[in-house]
Every structure is written in C-alpha cells, then in structure tokens.
Amino acid sequence: MARTQGSYSVITSSRLREAALRLFAQHGYAAVSMRQIAREIGVQAGALYLHTPDKQTLLYTLMREHMEELLAAVPCDSGTPLERLERFCRFHIRFHHARRAPVFIAYLELRSLEPENFARIEALRNRYEAHLETILRDGIEAGSFAAPDAKLVTLALIAMLTGVTTWFRPDGRLDLAQIEAIYWDMVRKVLSV
Amino acid sequence: MARTQGSYSVITSSRLREAALRLFAQHGYAAVSMRQIAREIGVQAGALYLHTPDKQTLLYTLMREHMEELLAAVPCDSGTPLERLERFCRFHIRFHHARRAPVFIAYLELRSLEPENFARIEALRNRYEAHLETILRDGIEAGSFAAPDAKLVTLALIAMLTGVTTWFRPDGRLDLAQIEAIYWDMVRKVLSV
DNA sequence: GTCTATACGTGGATAGAC
DNA sequence: GTCTATCCACGTATAGAC
Asked: Are residues A163 and B183, on separate chains, in Cβ contact within 8 Å?
C-alpha cells in the first residue's frame, strides 16, 4: 500500500479549516481554544501546529481566503447599470448566505486581527465595496439612478443586504428567492429617479 | 470628616461600567480580562467583585441597561405614519451614534450571553423592532407606504440605519446631520408608493 | 472598599517519542 | 503526522489583612 501521510495531512487541514470556521463564527475567535478545535476534529492540540503556525494566522487565513473567493465570484460588469445592480444585489445575498460562517467572521472578527492583517483584509473589503460604488456612479452619471451620495448609498445598501445573514433561517416564513426579490425591490426604489 | 466609603463605591462602580463598555466594545467580551478592566480604572482585580458578582453579569447588565434606555428614549407615536417614520429614523441614527460602545456590544456580544440572559436581551430587542414595524404597518394600511412585507422591511431598515455606527467618523467628509438627511431620504424612497 | 496573596483551571505553543 | 507530556503565562474568582 502506498504512503497515506500526505492524504491525511490534506484531510486534517481541511477539517481544521471547517471546524475553525464553524467555531469562530459561533462563539468568537477569542472564546474558542485550540484544544476545542482539536477535539472537534479528533486530534490532539499539538497536531494543529503542523497545519497552522499559530491561532492568529489561522484566523487571518480563513478571512483572506473568504475575501478572495468573494472578489473572484463578483459578477462581471456588463449590461446597463440597472442590470448590473440587480445582478450584484442578488449575488450578494446568495453568496453571503451560502457562506454564513466566513461572513460572520469577516465582519465580527476584524478587531481580533493584528494591525497588518487587519489592513490587508480591510483593503480586500474596500475592493469589494468599490464594485457596488462603481455601479452606482455609472448609473448616476447615465441618469438611471438618483442618489445624493454614491459612497454613502454603497455603505447603506451593503449593510442592508448583509443583514439578511443575521436573521435568515431556511425553515422560516420566506425562502431565499422571495427574500432576494423583496430586497431587490427595496434597492431599486432607493436608487429610483 | 464624614465617611467617604459610599461615595468611593459609586465612583468605582460607574468607572467600572465605563471601562467595561469601552474595552468590551473595542476588543470583545472574551478577549478582555477582569485584570485589564481593573488596571484601566486603577484598582486591583479582586476589588471589581464588590461591584459585580461575575464577568457574565457585568456584560448582561451593560446590555440590559442599554436596551432599557433605548426603549425609554424611542419617540412617541403621534402624527402621520410618515412623520413617525422620519422621527424614528433620525432618532435611531442619533441615539446609536451617541452610544456606539453599548450598541456594538448589544449587537456583537449576544453570543457571549448565557441562554437565559440571551433570551431577555432578545426580547428587549424585539420590542424595539416592533416600534418600527408598527409604524410601517400603520402606514401601509393607511396607503401612505408601499412595502411587500412589513417585517422584512423593518429588519432591512434597522440593519441599514445601524450600519452608520460601523463607519461614521466625526472628522469625516459629512457630519451626522447630513448623514441623517441622506438616510432619511433613502428610507422615504424605500416606502414610497 | 480596597489591597495582597493565592487557589485553581485553562490558554497558546513546543519537545521528543512513536 | 500524531500523540503525550510539559512550559509558562494568564484567566476568573475568593480569603483575609488593613
């Protein structure tokens, strides 16, 4: 039989990421111990340090990977501003719901990052927000949207859309498609001329 | 000279609240130690336990007091739905900015509360959200507002309005009065028929 | 009311056996 | 690659002197 050590390493690494994501999102970075994560994936605490140099790097890596996946998944900029806006809003709600755990972490654990790591994550977030801001500016310039301040509306809309993740339950009164439609309706009205 | 012990107690108690509010808001409940709070107000860690039975109760008390002050300060329900809505939105932005620290704690540290305390704080929050929802329902019934779902719009608007506290800086491009006006404009449009 | 001292658990991280 | 054992700092909370 061939060596399986490499395989085990990959498995444990991915299980470590999963468990850390879930536990950090649920209880918070500071409240979760490395021992707790290790117990969750069935290894001893010391073994975790084969897969991450330390706890802080583990947090930062999870956040960075999430932000990079988010940026890679943003829909392309084709069509009218209205079409682009709708695509962005529906994407935002769907993506953020599909990745609730990293979304919570990326929003709530910024303060747990050391300064350099914080700056890097913040830069990625600014790049994401710039996508929406660009759509708004293009729409305002074209006369399709009315908004007193593109930057402020960007921040307001992102806060509104992201808020869905804090209360949405799959077994609730409305499904995600309905919520998407209602939110899109609100966004459309905010920008209406 | 009269005894001064009672006075000292009151002073330390209020200094404890202030310091805990600030540190919990900045670093998170789990990341802040009782020793750190004590150092901040210039007493020994043991002395804190004269003013709070334990750390969890300290957190819960801060959150409960904040929510009760919020509920006590909600503007009264007089006038047209549109007037009531404007009053609520402006109040929300102003109050939440004035009390940024307890607001952060009330939103981010729900997961740090033990189940019974969590349930109590959640109940207070639901009472606050009900104020806005009632305004929306009254306005929809009167034909002043158009909204597909009063509950969802309530959650969306509160997320949007509360978001201001996460990025607003007094030395920024816009002052709070301008921001209030822009946000009120967005809210008005969301509800427009 | 506050201090000093301390009990006792648990945290992150590492060393060396297997 | 993982385990056991361990280091050492720090956590919450309490006891008893002043």
From this structure: no
State the CATH architecture for B5-52: Orthogonal Bundle (1.10)
Nearest partner of A158 among B168, B163, B155, judged by Cα = B163
Q: CA A63 → CA A60, A114, A122, A153, B177, distances in Å?
A: 5, 13, 10, 25, 35
> Per CATH, which fold does A7-52 belong to?
Arc Repressor Mutant, subunit A (1.10.10)
* Residue boundaries of the structural domains of chain A: 7-52, 58-191
Interface mutation target, options B186, B188, B192, B193, chain A, most CBs of A under 10 Å: B186
Shortest CB distance from B111 goes to which of A26, A148, A153?
Answer: A26
Which amino acid makes up residue B122?
E
- Mean pLDDT over residues B79-102, rounded? 98
Positions 50-89 in B, CB within 7 angstroms of strand C: 50-51
Q: What is the architecture, at CATH level 2, of domain A58-191? A: Orthogonal Bundle (1.10)
CATH numeric code, B57-191: 1.10.357.10
pLDDT digits (tens, 9 = 90+) for B147-157: 999 999 999 99
Q: pTM to 2 decimals?
A: 0.95
Nearest to A159 by CA among B83, B165, B46: B165
Confidence of residue A47 (pLDDT cuts 50, 70, 90): very high
> What value does the mean pLDDT of chain B take?
95
DSSP state for residue A168 in the 8-state scheme: -
